[in-house]
């Protein structure tokens, strides 16, 4: 029985559009992340999942420890829901309301570490909470981009703290400020973790692979020096690094105590292009055929679920099942209709389902209020996404 037939059978009583999570694939991806981590704990990146049931499931598995949230309001909500008592907020916050909720909640203050990369972030907290506020746990972010030449920046634009000296200077500033406790460091090497080395042409893949090998050596040396400099000043509880695409290289660094990962649990299309690991597609969505404008074309209802990032074809969803379908270059995935073409379209009838995959792991959950959790040829349960729990963290 093909996957398409299995998914169709499991969801035969549901009307598309809807989204499913293949629980066997989700669990297998978790096992593979643990294998690749080689004993180093993994902090689960919530933005790549955005479903409390799935987050709680993976956190119950030995080897996964704590959450990395993208929003302070999200982190406080997870503490209130009892999802985790160990949360790092990966991005600095300017949310005064969420800071006040954090300061007013003893459990949240003990569980949550906020991200800072400049004294101005501390000033913002003081402005939101006033002088004499309760102690706030903070994590210092080191920029992990690769800068092989002056003016050349390869990686994400994150922290202004790049050198070990800058990290130590910021650590001293944090330690000198009342109401703050420095508990951790983080560095995300996006040019390694978030960039596939087998997604393009042979020449492009070779160039990416060369860059990543050079960057792995550079960040390991610089991160170790920065961690050493900061540990001389503060007793750090954790040093976080990496992502789903860099589990092996990040985990091999002695200075790193934990690895961040989330997309590897879901296996979106942007993670099809890595040479050293292949997550199984665990989340997908079904759209119904509503038109047959030509023998080899079927038009689907809705479907324009475009991923964030640079505007290019890789950010569009991709037809998954039945095999042999593709989007039309002129129309792409549309707001109200998505045409697909290919030999397989000849056999599609009105009302049939076409299964598609999103380019990014967590953003599919922003389009659906619920995930239908599939085990084999049945829906085991239906669980709310963040949207289904009336949560929107931006």
From TrEMBL:
Pfam families: Ala_racemase_N (PF01168). It comes from the Bacteria. Gene3D superfamilies: Alanine racemase (3.20.20.10). GO terms for molecular function: D-serine ammonia-lyase activity. InterPro entries: Ala_racemase_N, D-amino_acid_metab_enzyme, PLP-binding_barrel. Residues 21-267 form the Alanine racemase N-terminal domain. CDD domains: PLPDE_III_DSD_D-TA_like_2 (cd06813). GO terms for biological process: D-serine catabolic process. This is Alanine racemase.
């Amino acid at each position: 029985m093909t996957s398409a037939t299995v998914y169709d059978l499991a969801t035969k009583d549901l009307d598309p559009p809807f989204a499913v999570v293949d629980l066997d694939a989700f669990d297998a991806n978790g096992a593979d992340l643990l294998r690749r981590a080689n004993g180093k704990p993994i902090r689960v990146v919530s933005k790549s999942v955005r479903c409390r049931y799935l987050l709680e499931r993976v956190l119950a598995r030995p080897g996964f420890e704590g959450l990395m949230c993208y929003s302070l309001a999200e982190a406080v909500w997870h503490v209130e829901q009892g999802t985790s008592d160990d949360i790092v907020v990966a991005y600095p916050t300017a949310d005064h309301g969420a800071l006040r909720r954090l300061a007013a909640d003893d459990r949240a203050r003990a569980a949550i570490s906020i991200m800072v990369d400049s004294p101005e972030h501390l000033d913002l907290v003081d402005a939101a909470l006033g002088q004499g506020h309760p102690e706030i746990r903070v994590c210092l972010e080191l920029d992990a981009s690769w800068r092989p030449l002056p003016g050349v920046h390869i990686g994400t634009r994150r922290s202004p703290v790049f050198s070990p000296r800058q990290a130590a200077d910021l650590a001293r500033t944090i330690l000198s400020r009342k109401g703050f406790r420095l508990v951790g460091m983080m560095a995300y090497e996006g040019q390694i973790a978030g960039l596939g080395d087998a997604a393009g042409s042979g020449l492009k893949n070779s160039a990416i692979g060369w860059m990543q090998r050079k960057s792995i050596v550079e960040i390991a040396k610089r991160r170790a020096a920065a961690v050493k400099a900061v540990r001389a000043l503060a007793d750090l509880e954790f040093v976080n690094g990496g992502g789903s695409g860099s589990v092996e290289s990040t985990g091999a660094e002695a200075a790193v105590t934990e690895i961040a990962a989330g997309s590897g649990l879901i296996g979106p299309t942007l993670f099809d292009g890595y040479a050293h690991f292949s997550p199984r597609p665990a989340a997908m969505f079904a759209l119904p055929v509503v038109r047959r404008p030509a023998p080899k074309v079927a038009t689907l209802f809705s479907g324009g679920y475009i991923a964030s990032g640079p505007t290019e074809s890789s950010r569009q969803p991709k037809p998954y099942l039945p095999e042999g379908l593709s989007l039309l270059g002129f129309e792409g995935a549309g707001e109200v209709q998505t045409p697909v073409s290919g030999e397989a379209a000849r056999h599609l009838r009105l009302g049939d389902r076409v299964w598609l995959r999103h380019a990014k792991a967590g953003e599919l959950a922003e389009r659906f209020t619920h995930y239908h959790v599939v085990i084999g040829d049945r829906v085991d349960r239906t669980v709310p996404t963040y949207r289904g729990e009336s949560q929107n963290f931006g």
